[in-house]
Amino acid sequence: MANGDSVGFEEKLWLAADKMRNNLDPAEYKHVVLGLIFLKYISDTFEEKYNQLAKEGEGFEEDRDEYSSENIFWVPVKARWKHLQDNAKKPEIGIIIDEAMIEIEKENGSLKGVLNKNYGRPDLDKRRLGELVDLMSNIKVGDKEGRDKDTLGRVYEYFLGRFASSEGKGGGEFYTPKCIVKTLVELLEPYKGRIYDPCCGSGGMFVSSEKFVEEHSGTIGDISIYGQESNPTTWRLCKMNLAIRGIDGNLGQFHADTFHNDLHKTLKADYILANPPFNISDWGGNRLLDDPRWIFGTPPTGNANYAWLSHMVTHLAPNGSAGIVLANGALSSNTSSEGEIRKNMLNGHVVDCIVAMPSQLFYTTGIPVSLWILNRNKKNPAYRSRENEVLFIDARKLGEMVTRKTRELNDDDIQKIAGTYHNWRNKNGKYEDIKGFCSSATLDEIKTHDYILTPGRYVGIEDEIDDGISFEEKMEVLTTELSAQFRQSKELEERIRENLKSIGFEI
């Protein structure tokens, strides 16, 4: 994990679990492992409360209200981890785990249809499955110590990221890189109110929002969470991810397509955080041509990017703000409908800030992305009025490569982006343009660029630092070095020819 998190414990567990994968595809194995982690968590949590009540000697250990009042799931005897551990070496361990999942869903209505109940299938190696149970038996994830250290949350988040990396393209459907989520949260600062994500994946935006509130000494009860997800397996992942964090969220009663079955039609959110799938062409726009959400114009049927933007603006409260990840093509796309919608959004004063992000942040795609910060009330008296301005930030040079293929932003990078935005937005902020990094552009200036929102057009190129050495001196040094390299190359060529000649070959 980046951003200062320790990876020792999580990585060791991942490496051990991954060895047991055998020939299972990561997309399949993901549900095997994450389902077991979830079961271990709710069992540990239940057992700790059960033992506490038993110790008090009042006979309340079988009173379900004692558990529900603390958001603890009721776990039947045959679903408790000890029962699984006692049977881990048996060939029918898969069936035993399936039965445990079925029993938990029976006893806890909010988990109905959420848990993986396919551990008994023939292609899952039961010996390795038993070893996985034994491995997880050695960690405490649901007792007080584990919860205080957020052990399970860290493990779950780490595994989600590793599975996303292993799965390639499919992994992007459920996981947004942590540094992108954290950047959005730091930009929006969701202290209090309703938070909405219409394409919530595995729930990373919600988890980061809760963390933000905790880290800034806020009250978790001051925020409420609403989400929607169209992929059934990803919807289940999100339900489990929120449950193990103790987050109470409204994800609807089932998975559903946001465009065609909006489960939160009347919601007006204070904050929207979203990473919608990029450039979707088959989103069914031809069936929504007269939809009331298209207040800036009807989005093209061949690309959903501007449909997402329009959907989210209509779900914002009067003072609400949104942070959205979109492919860079949306900044300058010039089909008649997209260009018109972008123009109308700007003239409607809802575009607050655009951040061009570095490449290679995603495990699953090399498509460069930008963050769109939207605001329904840029004249909000809590901040300075910026109705006729848009802030552009070019953050493409930030971050560092953490693998051959993947880049991450560290905490300093994130604070540089968020701090620039806050200084520009806040009444007492000390903001100034920085060539090559940030620029506050007026709508008149943006109009001269045909309403294209690519940050590089506005921030320009940073000035090179004058090192005091003249061009002539630099060229003399460079030509001298080049001449020496040419000589070395010629000497090496002659040596190779001589060696080849000595063994009977001439070139």
Topology, element by element:
Elements lengths: L7 H12 L6 H31 L7 H5 L12 H6 L6 H15 L18 H12 L6 H5 L2 H17 L10 H11 L4 E5 L6 H12 L7 E5 L4 H14 L3 E2 L18 E6 L30 H10 L1 E12 L1 H4 L3 H12 L3 E6 L12 E7 L13 E6 L5 E2 L5 E2 L2 H15 L12 E5 H6 L7 H4 L11 H32 L5
Helix pairs in contact: 1-8, 2-6, 2-8, 2-11, 9-10, 9-15
Structure description:
It is a single chain. It is built from 18 helices and eleven strands. The chain has helices at 8-19, 26-56, 64-68, 81-86, 93-107, 126-137, 144-148, 151-167, 178-188, 204-215, 232-245, 305-314, 329-332, 336-347, 411-425, 443-448, 456-459, 471-502, and strands spanning 193-197, 223-227, 249-250, 269-274, 316-327, 351-356, 369-375, 389-394, 400-401, 407-408, 438-442. Helix 10 links the parallel strand 1 (193-197) and strand 2. The chain is α/β, with parallel strands linked by helices. The protein has three domains: 8-169, Ferritin (Up-down Bundle), CATH 1.20.1260.30; 174-459, Vaccinia Virus protein VP39 (Rossmann fold); 467-507, no CATH class. The longest helix has 32 residues, at 471-502.
Key attributes of the depicted protein:
disordered N terminus, alpha/beta, 507 residues, Ferritin, Rossmann fold, two-stranded antiparallel sheet
